[in-house]
Amino acid sequence: MEPGGESLILRPIGHVRTAKRLKFDAPHQPDADAEETNRIELLSGSEFERALDDLAGFERIWLVWWFHRNASWRPRVLPPRGPAKRRGVFATRSPHRPNPLGLTCVRLLGVQGRVLTVGPLDLVDGTPILDVKPYLPQVDAFPGSKAGWIDEIDAELAGRERYEIEVQPLAARQLAYLRDAWDVDFTERAFGILGLDPTPHRTRRILRVDDRLLRLACGPWRLYYTLEGRRVSVESIASGYADSIHAEAPDRAAHAAFVQRVFGDA
């Protein structure tokens, strides 16, 4: 992409190593309270281990990275936060940017050789890292700053009652099977989305199936539910992968077993 007619050459200095393999696995911002560790592995052959000298004394660092899974950009985007209203891309953190650069502040837990151990982050495995910078609280933090339309959305949400989530027996059996047999559990993220706003929204990957049923796409899984007042009733779970692409699915064995299993009365 060359929005201004000029071009720059950027080369990764390393990559993220994390258990987050799908975009749905990564939150829109790092969860500061999450108990997780991740690694940034810098490349060999460029003396990056020397470039990391003196970084260990900093509690937080900035990661400058590349949205490597996005090939296009949009001047107006539909953020997941708030109602289905498009915003100018420069007023959002959307990945669909003229130059798909990302910026994330993470806790630095350790430095060893060319490897940084960090806390919670919002990146998927393999994300190219372009630069690492120390976080300086005296110049990088402005907690009293206004946040435009986000402040308006947050104020509206603060006064809104959360939706109640009720899991029906079939969905409960399906979720228990995925959790117990395959260690697949997307309920915390999915229920967090539904608890705030379960209405149809393209960026939140919620669509209306028919007059009664709605569907939330949770990465490669699908969660079907009904909405009555402020009560969300989760009815069933389904695989989002077609049989023809099971071989390419990150959890293909779990998907294959799930679609073959009959979840009768138990």
The side-by-side strand order for the widest beta sheet comes to 1-2-7-6-3-8
* SS content category: alpha+beta
Query: Stretches where pLDDT falls below 50 for ≥5 residues?
Result: none
Return the string of H and E elements.
Answer: EEHEEEEEEHHEHHEEEEH
Could you state the CATH homologous superfamily of the largest domain?
YaeB-like
> At the third CATH level, what is the topology name of the largest domain?
Elongation Factor Tu (Ef-tu), domain 3
- Report the sheet-strand fraction: 25-35%
Shape: globular
**Main β-sheet: number of strands, strand sense, barrel status?**
6 strands, antiparallel, barrel
How helical, in percent, are the residues? 10-25%
Strand tally: 13
Mean pLDDT, to the nearest integer, reads 87
Query: What's the multimeric state?
Result: single chain
User: Number of DSSP helices?
Assistant: 6
Radius of gyration: 21 Å
Which CATH first-tier class of the largest domain would you pick? Mainly Beta
Number of domains: 2
CATH architecture of the largest domain: Beta Barrel
N-end to C-end Cα span:
55 Å
